[in-house]
Records
---
Amino acid sequence: MNKDQVKGVVEQVKGKVNEAVGKATDNPGKELKGDLQQGAGKIRKAYGDAKEEAKDDAKRNNP
């Protein structure tokens, strides 16, 4: 697991918290911020996953 994967998951969790707070307080701005954070977190995690996959492929191809 690399730092982009970890930071992506953390961002997703923060987004879920912000979304829940926005719903609980009837604050659409906070809810939207949470949705955007979750999306950004998913993208960052996917980037980290791709980096990890490339690293694994390089190890397999260069024993």
---
Amino acid sequence: MKQFFTNQLQTLKSTPKTLLLTYIIIYFCWGLGMNQFGAEMEIARFSYWWQVITCYILYMVPISILLKEYSFFNQYAYGLVAMGILEFLGYWLQTSYVYPNNILDQLFNPQNFSLGMALFFALYFPAGNWLVAKVHRLIF
């Protein structure tokens, strides 16, 4: 187990700085945009704007880097676990706000809201890795 974590840490440390910066910029903008979209559409939002940094940069970027070499399906599957934990904790700790009777509640019912959010946001890992790779290749 110790070897596993050592290998994962080494993968993160060996990530080129230009690639890491590309992840940070893209995920930060993506997070701000999604938080704004969720608030404007009255679906859900972070309780504090800076949670974009903790969730998208400090949580999702390292996971994306660790998953980037996997297939789409494996990135999605592992991402689903990661996002399930994040969504559960966000609503349980009330650091995320869900607007009552939002469009997703009406469509799927409130009991399925956080599951639906986890299923959707798990796509960020394969989609984010694809986008970051394209942008990084284009620029660098």
---
Amino acid sequence: MTDSRSDCLFCKIVTGEVPAEVVREGERTLAFRDINPQAPTHVLIVPREHYPDVASAGAAGVGVVDEIAREAREVARAEGIAESGYRLVFNTGPGAGQTVFHVHGHLLGGRGLQWPPG
């Protein structure tokens, strides 16, 4: 696990060092397609600022989690899944499946999503 900004894949995507299929750019966020999609729509929404996980982003008290949720709504509208429904998932820690330690929301939709998820 790394939370070093210089080693962070998503920080490198935000700065353009690593290419990604960007679907939406906000002032504080970037949304791009997941390279291993788990649904017809699978977009990652990340803040431009580095936080290792959603818990640390929420604890910072700067509204970044709210911003990710707002951007998810806009991406869902653009992708045509806002009306049928979508899921926004945050994995926090290795035990939950987090593999990149830069907070990111997984926006999933375009198919039925069962519960419980995993």
---
Amino acid sequence: MFGDMMNMMGKLKEAQKKVEETKERLNTVMIDESSNDGKLKVTLTANRTIKSISIDEELLQDKDMLEDYLILTLNRAIEKATNVNETEIAAVAKEGMPNIPGMDMFK
């Protein structure tokens, strides 16, 4: 039994390392999102860090419109990045989970 426990602990540490490596890799996965008319473009990492924002000159003339565009476009980009992030992390975590009775919620 002690050997099984040590084996499980080793697998958990390995899974944790893979999750950390995946998080690092997700810093290089870029998510691009644009407003419907292309006047605002944002790029985020899959870890939800904003990398760039491109704003059409027309939007700079209307503060309220720019704010609306930013909210809508950033929220869509964050949603996409979150989906990529959660899918990647869940896949790595599931792959590395040892077979522990009663812990099959990740399977």
